[in-house]
Write a structure and sequence with these properties.
By secondary structure, the chain is mainly α. Helices cover 43% and strands 8% of the residues. The chain is built from 4 helices and 2 strands, in the order βαβααα. It has helices at residues 11-26, 51-60, 66-69, 83-95; strands at residues 3-6, 42-45. The two termini are 18 Å apart.
């Protein structure tokens, strides 16, 4: 993972958990290390935005740092227990052009 975006109820808490895992890794096994010193795993949360705005950010702005970009050809969106949100995500990401 080189970029993590969270949206939905309690997304800031989930974001903080991901940040804690990354910080712990920086002082331990260093599994999330980029190609260079300037590379980092980026994380954002979008609790004050609606789903469309969060997806806009994910599609248009959530790009990895340069050293991590070569191995970042995949996007994953996870939706739990809401078929309407899942359909919106599927539709928007299906239309997205992730080429930079």
């Amino acid at each position: 993972m080189v970029y993590f975006c969270a949206w939905g109820p309690d997304c800031s808490r989930f974001h903080d958990i991901v940040d804690l895992v990354i910080v712990k890794d920086e002082t331990g096994d260093r599994l999330f290390v980029g190609a260079g010193e300037e590379d980092t795993v980026m994380t954002t949360w979008h609790e004050k935005e609606n789903l469309s705005e969060a997806l806009d950010f994910f599609i248009n702005w959530a790009y990895p740092t340069d050293g991590c970009a070569a191995d970042s050809n995949y996007r994953v969106a996870v939706c739990l227990d809401n078929s309407e949100w899942a359909a919106t995500i599927r539709h928007r990401l299906g239309q997205a052009d992730f080429r930079r």
